[in-house]
Each structure stands twice: as structure tokens, then as C-alpha cells.
From TrEMBL:
Transmembrane regions listed in the UniProt entry: 7-24, 36-54, 85-109, 115-132, 139-163, 183-202, 214-236, 263-286, 298-315, 321-338
Listed name of the protein: Membrane protein YkvI
InterPro entries found in the cross-reference section: SNS_sf (IPR037272), YkvI-like (IPR038728)
Domain of life: Bacteria
PANTHER family associated with the record: CONSERVED MEMBRANE PROTEIN (PTHR37814), MEMBRANE PROTEIN (PTHR37814:SF1)
Record's keyword annotation contains Transmembrane: yes
The encoding gene: ykvI_1
UniProt keyword annotations, A-Z: Membrane, Transmembrane, Transmembrane helix
Coiled coil: none
Signal peptide stretch: none
């Protein structure tokens, strides 16, 4: 029972870390999969396999080298000097990602709850700071509550989509976009999300340590991510191309479920954004603490302040501009994590 609990904690934290602002709102699914029409179904399958395989590999490797932060993992992948430079660049990327997620949270407050964008940002920042004072324990607890609820409502959205007219559009919808772009999308998407998720999955893998527990948790988490991608793709395909007008596409779809379910689902979208937000801020603050030796609470406050001003640009402009750029950088990281071999015991082998 103790191992089962840890397996589920890993799975839920993995899902909660990946399912951030772009995923939960539907923007990522729209940009990387649904806009490519029927190709999206096949490329989601590719992305799911990558999440299962490489998510497992990353956490196992972190456990083997007992990585304190993602910089330790990057040193194992790239070497000492290059690993530090890569980690430094990833700090900048994480700041951008955190700004995107804050902007997503602000958009939910504005579009769905009639609260001003800036007020939504301030509420989100206050919640992040309070929870992050408790560290990794708060991240595991929040994900254990939020992710099962999100999975349940994903099933509800999927059931509603399947029962509606035009439910098979995800298999037949056409696109004028290049098939090459469609097949590149799952690699860009997985590379970006896995490289960003290492901020929390690396210390989690090191903390759990046990290989069998990590593998089981990563498999369940990867399958869960794939299921949520496919469910979102099916629902979004039914409403193409009109759904592209929404900054929060899944929130627009939830309006058809009735007012009560719409409010709950929108709250869960916010909760999923929030879980990834606190995970990334936690990982970034750990990395900065190793370099600067400043108190983590102070670093958390500085990160929140910087990202508050950056998020004023707006959710959709940040997402559409920054994510593809970060995805290209992350492809190099993806290639090296694929190359890296792991052992059942001892240190990692491969490039060091």
C-alpha cells in the first residue's frame, strides 16, 4: 500500500506538472495537434509514447545520480561546463513559462469569473507564495487532489463530445498545413514539456529513489497525459475552426455542459495551471538557491514579481510566441536524454 501511494503520487505529479496553462486551457492541444486535423490523432499517440519512455528515463536517471536539482541532471547529459550553461538558459525559459501560466490564470479570472486580469494575477501570486513555503510536500498534496478531479471531468467532456453530432470529426477533419509540421509537433511538444518538467520531476525522482516505483508511476502518468490529450483533441475538433477565437478554448467548450459544470470545470482548469505553476516556481527557486545561496522564500517572491510584470503581455501572445521557440531548444535536450543509458543500479552510463 505504501508503494501504491508513492506510485500514484508520482503519476499525479507527472500529469499535474505537464498539464499546465497551455494544456488545461486547450491552447497547447490546439496549437500542436488539433489544427493539424486528422493527423493530430496519430501524433498524440507518438507524444504519449515519448512521455512514457522519456519521463521514466529522466526520473530513473535522477534517482541514480541523486540529483539535487535539474542542473545535476544537465551536467550528466551535457558535461560539467555545458550543463551549467544549459541550466542557466533553462532558468530563463522557466521564467517565460511561469509568466505564460500566470497569464493563463489571469485570463480565466477575466473571461469566466468577471474579475479583472490584474486582480486574478495577484490572487494567483498570493496562493503560490503561501503554498510554496511548504516545499515539495505541498506540490504532491495539491496534485493528489486536483489531478483525479481533472481526469474525472476529462471523462465527462469526452462522453459529452462522443454523444454529440459530429463526434467523429477528429478522424476526418482536413487541414492545409504541412504533414511534416504535423509530425514534428509531437517531438517539439514532448521535448519542451519534458525539459521544463525536470524542474520538479528530477528532485522527485531523487527523493523516491526506488526504480520500480518510479517506472510504475511514470507509466501511469504518461498514459494519463495521453488520454487527456486525446480527449481534448476530440472535443476541440468538433468546434473547429470557431474554437480558435477563445484564449481558453476548453472553457468555451465547457459552456455547453451547463452553468454548474462549466464553473467547476473552469475552476479545475485554473487548478491545473496552478499545480504546474507552483511546481515550476519551486524547481526554479531550488536552482537559484544553489547558485546564489539566498533564502528560498525570498527567491520565490522575486520570481513571482518578475513574472507578474511579464504576464501583463497576455496569455495567447506569450504562448504562441515563446512555446515553439522553447520547443526548438528543447529538441537538443531530448536527443541527449534519448542517448543517455541508465542502469538498474549505480551511476548512469553514456555521455558524462
Amino acid at each position: 500500500m505504501k508503494r501504491t501511494g508513492k506510485v500514484l503520487q508520482i503519476a499525479f505529479t507527472y500529469i499535474g506538472t505537464i498539464v499546465g496553462a497551455g494544456f488545461a486551457t486547450g491552447q497547447e492541444i490546439l496549437q500542436f495537434f488539433t489544427r493539424f486535423g486528422h493527423w493530430g490523432t496519430f501524433t498524440i499517440a507518438v507524444a504519449t509514447l515519448l512521455f512514457i519512455w522519456l519521463g521514466t528515463k529522466m526520473m530513473v536517471l535522477a534517482g541514480e545520480i541523486q540529483a539535487k536539482s535539474y542542473e545535476d541532471l544537465n551536467k550528466a547529459l551535457f558535461g560539467e561546463r555545458a550543463g551549467r550553461l544549459v541550466s542557466l538558459f533553462m532558468m530563463v525559459i522557466l521564467l517565460g513559462v511561469i509568466a505564460v501560466m500566470m497569464a493563463g490564470a489571469g485570463s480565466i479570472f477575466y473571461e469566466h469569473w468577471n474579475i479583472s486580469y490584474v486582480s486574478g494575477l495577484l490572487i494567483t501570486i498570493a496562493g503560490c507564495y503561501v503554498l510554496l513555503r511548504k516545499g515539495m510536500k505541498s506540490i504532491l498534496t495539491v496534485n493528489t487532489i486536483v489531478v483525479p478531479l481533472m481526469l474525472l471531468f476529462t471523462v465527462i467532456v469526452l462522453a459529452d463530445a462522443i454523444a454529440s453530432p459530429g463526434s467523429s470529426r477528429w478522424l476526418t477533419i482536413k487541414t492545409d498545413l504541412s504533414p511534416w509540421a504535423a509530425w514534428a509537433a509531437p517531438f517539439l511538444y514532448a521535448a519542451f514539456n519534458l525539459s521544463m518538467s525536470q524542474a520538479v520531476l528530477v528532485p522527485l525522482g531523487a527523493q523516491i529513489g526506488d526504480r520500480k516505483t518510479i517506472v510504475a508511476g511514470a507509466w501511469i502518468g504518461g498514459i494519463g497525459i495521453g488520454f487527456m490529450l486525446l480527449a481534448g483533441h476530440i472535443a476541440l475538433s468538433m468546434h473547429m475552426p470557431g474554437v480558435q477565437q477563445f484564449a481558453i478554448p476548453m472553457g468555451g467548450i465547457a459552456r455547453g455542459l451547463g452553468q454548474g459544470l462549466q464553473w467547476i470545470y473552469t475552476a479545475l482548469i485554473f487548478a491545473e495551471i496552478f499545480t504546474t505553476l507552483i511546481a515550476d516556481i519551486y524547481g526554479l527557486s531550488l536552482q537559484l538557491q544553489e547558485r546564489l545561496k539566498w533564502p528560498r522564500n525570498l527567491l520565490t517572491a522575486i520570481i513571482l514579481l518578475i513574472c507578474f510584470f511579464a504576464s501583463r503581455i497576455g496569455f495567447e501572445p506569450l504562448l504562441s510566441t515563446l512555446y515553439p521557440l522553447f520547443g526548438l531548444f528543447s529538441l537538443g535536450w531530448l536527443a541527449l536524454i534519448i542517448r543517455q543509458r541508465t542502469e538498474a543500479k549505480g551511476t548512469p552510463t553514456g555521455r558524462n
